[in-house]
Amino acid sequence: MRFVASCFPLLVGALMLADCSTSNRASAPHPGEQYRTLPADAPVLSDITIPVALSVYDLLKALNERMQGLLYEDNSFTDNGNDGLMLRLWRTRPFEMEVSSQSIRYRAPLKIWVKQQVFWGAVEAEGELQLGLKTNFRLLPDWSLHTQTTVEFYEWLSDPVLKTALGSVNIQPLANLMLAQSRTTLTQSLDRFISQQLSLRSYAQAAWEALQTPLLLDSAQQLWVKTTPISIGMTPLLAVGDELRAVIAVECYSEAILGRRPNFRTNTNLPNLRLLSEVPNGFHLRLMAEVPFAEAERIARSMVVGQSFSSGKKQVTVQNLRLWGNGDRLVVNTRLTGAFNGDIYLIGKPIPNLNKNCIEVAELEFHAETRNLLHRTAAWLFSSAFRRRIGEALVFPLEEDFRAMRTSAQQVLEHYVIQPGIVLTGTVDTVAVERTLITPNGIRADLYSKGRLQINIRGW
């Protein structure tokens, strides 16, 4: 009995120790939590287009309003090098006009009056003719328009006659000479007029300055787009129907900024014109969306916590799951009970799945220290469905974020008034995940948006 009594405490202790050995935690070493410095990406280079349409009808209307009645008058015999000639030109009917890509042609019905000094005094002549003129134009690097107007032909609608006491005498050869002397003055007047009417600098200057105003793309998330223009160009003017058309394209850097309206200072210095052979591709913008660790954990827990995994008679149940970053990898901490009781760690790399619009965790493996522990204590977990099921739970959808962002942006771009007379319109064609990064707050997805933006300018 003494032997039994003396051994009883040892027996109880052995049973307690055996019981404790089944409940003791055998957690793997903690992999640690660390984050890399996030890359400072340069803003994305984009192009914003400004279609320009100049109405030929408006140009002709302005020409007829501007150049009517008396067009030219020389009332001195001593002007123009003492030429002994007086000359007046009137427009008798409206100008007619046709426009090609780099030239304008007009028909100008004119009445001509001349007074010429002759050896016996002075004689007068008058007649009516139709003048055919052509203006070639080209844009200069400083956005000014260089024009050169020439007389292509003229035909007399009524012969010029000299009025004398003896009657009227046809003096068409003399009138032709007088008309040639007035060509320079007439064509220079047309050059000045066309240069003013076809001025494109005002379009370019207005667009250049307006673009620098930050654009509120999403009011709910306070998402601003800040544009910094760096160069500007234009396609050649082309005649399409009754319009002269071109496209001004502004090359710019675009930044997405969350929060308050970003500060900006307008750069009013319009760069020199670049001539473009084709319209640039469109607008590009890099945005940012982040799945906080708390949200990612909620999604993953809903799929695995409470689930059991077994191999033969051995079974474990997932009690909890936590996530954090380790460099560019995601650490997955799962707490298990059952045949294995403790914390184990898996590690993988978040990657974008462009087809599913989500973030997945690729290359998911047991952490090295966890692998060593399981080899000694629970190697059967390697061959179970455990790791595969954890991987399936680590899928974080971004589709709703894409849809909301695209819908909000599209609504804004239907008609965004930058300032009176300058309206921004456009489309968001695609929004896709470009890459994923691990931050102290969660899993960040860099989104890349492509679309088209244009500025419509009225009243210039």
Characterize the structure shown.
The protein folds into two domains: 28-55 and 200-460, no CATH class; 67-198. The chain contains nine helices and 23 strands. The chain has helices spanning 2-23, 56-66, 79-82, 172-197, 201-210, 293-304, 368-377, 386-393, 399-413; strands at residues 44-55, 69-74, 85-91, 96-100, 103-118, 121-139, 145-164, 167-170, 215-218, 223-234, 238-240, 243-258, 273-275, 283-292, 308-311, 314-326, 329-338, 342-353, 358-366, 395-397, 416-419, 422-438, 442-457. The strands form four sheets. Strands 2, 3, 4, 5, 6, 7 and 8 form a seven-stranded antiparallel β-sheet that branches. Strands 1, 9, 10, 11, 12 and 13 form a six-stranded mixed β-sheet that branches. Strand 9 (215-218) and strand 10 form a beta hairpin. Helix 6 packs across helix 8 (386-393).
List keywords for this structure.
460 residues, alpha+beta, 2 domains, 6-stranded mixed β-sheet, 26% helix
Briefly, what is this?
It contains nine helices and 23 strands. By secondary structure, it is an alpha+beta fold.
